[in-house]
């Protein structure tokens, strides 16, 4: 894997870069869509935290370290802009905006029926 430099702030990244970072295990992948959207298929390893539920308290449960790079995605890439600003205001340093899952060329996972 090529070394990827992650700059502080909000950075747009493409799918191959996101995939490499996800595979490296050095980032937290957050799906900011609503629960129903998440349950219709998500990127393996993604943690669901909808934009509407995103507060400092809920986000710290998912990402306790402000210096851990966060990769965020939604359906089309529109909500990630708002989510990125929110995360930056909360104090997260490295926010990677992958845009939308709608064109994700890699594997999609579907949740098992859970009670």
Walk me through what this model shows.
With 115 residues, the chain is of the alpha/beta class. It has a domain at 24-100: Oxidized Rhodanese, domain 1. 30% of the residues lie in helices and 19% in strands. The protein is built from four helices and five strands, in the order βαβαβαβαβ. The protein has a five-stranded parallel beta sheet with strand order 1-5-4-2-3, with helices on both faces. It starts with 8 loop residues before the first strand and ends in a 15-residue tail after the last strand. The model has no long low-confidence stretch (mean pLDDT 93).
Estimated radius of gyration? 13 Å
> How many β strands by DSSP?
5
Give the CATH class of one domain: Alpha Beta
The fold-level CATH name of one domain is: Oxidized Rhodanese, domain 1
Largest beta-sheet characterization: 5 strands, parallel
Trace the largest sheet across and list its strands: 1-5-4-2-3
Describe this structure in a few short sentences.
By secondary structure, the chain is α/β, with parallel strands linked by helices. The protein is 30% helix and 19% strand. Strand 4, helix 4 and strand 5 form a beta-alpha-beta unit.
Defining key terms:
4 helices, single chain, 115 residues, alpha/beta
Break the fold down into its secondary structure elements and pairings.
Elements lengths: L8 E4 L2 H10 L3 E4 L3 H5 L7 E2 L7 H7 L7 E5 L4 H12 L3 E7 L15
Parallel strand pairs: 1-5, 2-3, 2-4, 4-5
């Amino acid at each position: 894997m090529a070394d990827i430099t992650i700059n502080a702030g909000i950075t747009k990244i493409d799918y191959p870069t996101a995939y490499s970072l996800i595979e490296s295990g050095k980032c937290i992948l957050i799906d900011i869509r609503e629960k129903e959207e998440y349950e219709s298929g998500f990127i393996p390893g993604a943690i669901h935290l909808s934009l509407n539920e995103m507060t400092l308290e809920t986000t710290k449960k998912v990402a306790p370290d402000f210096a851990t790079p966060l990769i965020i995605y939604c359906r089309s890439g529109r909500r990630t802009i708002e989510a990125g600003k929110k995360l930056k205001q909360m104090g997260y340093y490295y926010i990677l905006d992958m845009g939308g899952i709608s064109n994700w060329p890699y594997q999609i996972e579907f949740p098992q029926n859970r009670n």
